[in-house]
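Quick illustration for those who missed Monday's session on complexes.
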Amino acid sequence: MLTAVAERHTRMLLTGDHAVAYAALLARPRLIPVYPITPQTPVLEKLLELQERGALAADVMTVESEHSAMAACIAASLAGARVFTATASQGLALMHEMLHYAAGGRAPVVMVNVNRTLAAPWGFWADQTDSLAQRDTGWLQLYAESAQEALDSVLQAFRVAEAVLLPAMVVIEAMYVSHTLEPVDVPEGGLVDEFLPPYEPPVRLDPEAPRQFGGTVSPAQWRANRLAMQAAMELALEAVEAAGRSYGELTGRPYSRVEAYRADDAEVVLLAAGGIAGTAREAVDRLRREGIAAGLVKLRLFRPFPAADIVRLLGDVPKVAVIDRNCSVGSGGIICQEVRAALHAHGVSRPQVFAFIAGLGGVNVSRDRIVQICRHAVKAQSPPPGSILEEAL
Amino acid sequence: MSILAAPETELLSPGHASCPGCAVALAVRFVLKALGPQTVVVIPPSCIAVMAGPLPLASMRVPVFQTAFETTAAAASGLARAFRARGEEVIVACLAGDGGTHDIGLQALSGAAERNEDFIYFCFDNEGYQNTGNQKSSATPWGARTTSTPRGKSTRKKDIVQIMAAHRIPYAATACPAYPDDLVAKVERAKGLRGTRFIELLCPCVPGWGIGDDASLRVVRLAVESKLFPLYEVEDGLRYRITREPAGLPVREYLSAQSRYRHLTEEGVSQIQEAVDLEWARLLDAGTHAGGVGAPLRLS
Ligand code: SF4
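Prediction with iron/sulfur cluster bound:
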């Protein structure tokens, strides 16, 4: 079985950005409206190279802004075309208005965002605030820790988005994932076609059956639309799990909403999303060797927030150390807020939740730093009310 | 094509929510009639968006996509390419106001025109933000009073047709609902071409311009006949053609028919007359010097 699966892959040395471009190739979108921005630009360049070589059939439309890229994605999606785009940082912020529009318009656009600091001041390095600040737009959000995960997650994002008719964002970190070369098993086209059949929406912009999309509604109709989106998000929770499972059956690489590592008997569990989770796995091994019963919960899905998984995995753990590479200024780490809210809402009071903010602005979060974070949580009597900054370690 | 030869099928139903006597509504009616049913329209926030809805009511018998204010041309670009990718022959048409075109939508429109995206863009120019109660836009002319220019606007109107022609798009034209034959013929011309096509329609607004609800067509006819709003077309940004020879009435007749210019002094009126004469001369000049074949540049 596994040999058969492996045979249907080609192992390539790819950066996260190039892995994303191969995912877009395999998903067979009809249209890719896109605008370049560091550190997403290699996605655009690779797509155009693949198109030039005749491998990519999609129409790549290089527009004049990210705002227009998203506007074009939404309209094309509502006309019945599978669409893909990618952006980062300022580009995502510029799209903000249209992110709401895509979700409210139920356009299953799939986009990759490369996490990068938002200006001012300018920076080009990893920071999750750009995508986490879009948490209320109605987009699904999946965080990938490696180039392989990025490729696999884009394909799963299409499947889920088109099933629940909500847009989906796959997030990778600037440089650490976007520009780092890794071996990636790229599935062959036929394998992906089995997983992702052509997109044909139930209703669309079609002169044969004229309909109006995006028009003015009454308060009651607007409310009904929001509630339908909320219901779709609840369906998405299950759809993400199902897509990860069937993707695993086809490729040998199964995925879940969250992923636990040595967390069963842990006294302290680290929780992180994206690239830091990969480093945290090594920190857990090292801590275990030192005799500290550490574990890891990797948050892959951020929207819809997998609250039940969090409660199941962390409900009985004495201490949890959340590492946020982001900061909602005036409040603190965004993922930690969500974790605390989920535990509180489910009446779980057991774990002491420590809020660490690390790696802001792209500062490296090394294995040693994560070990320090864990030791800090182990030693402390109880978590302080605010966030714990790296300077305090 | 004459309006008499235009299809009888109405694609804008009666009973929609425009003000009585609205010239935009009439212009939209002619435009949709001339476009025909194999059309999908994109509408940004505007009086036209009000006419199209509210959901679940729909006045237009073609698919409508209402997009965000500044995104008309970007959404139309995406639509046109999506239909092409699906192998479907569909006309994509934008129905926008001057706020959505001259102001907030100009970046997306310029981007699309530079890429020569395949759609027809109609700007129903009522010289202000009329849907929100008559604030100035960059299409509001010098001297006109709006709620945001209570003493009269102190800067000139943006010449959107020249801006579009400067992109060297295949077709740019002016039209108005008082000359429906000319309007329908221009839609037909545009339909026969591919790429970005742009038609600017001057449409008096009953409350915004301060005119009677039976006056729109008379007023816009005065704009044309006084050379203030010449009817013309430009191919590839080079070849100009004036499609109606204006009678050359004094611009005062046009101005005095509207309350938004009531405060103008004699000097103000003559300044506008001078500006109109100058622009008309420039237009004739552009027509005379419109040499060159305008062949598209191609990569070898
Ligand atoms: S406000 Fe003016 S443009 Fe708008 S519907 Fe009324 S008359 Fe027409």
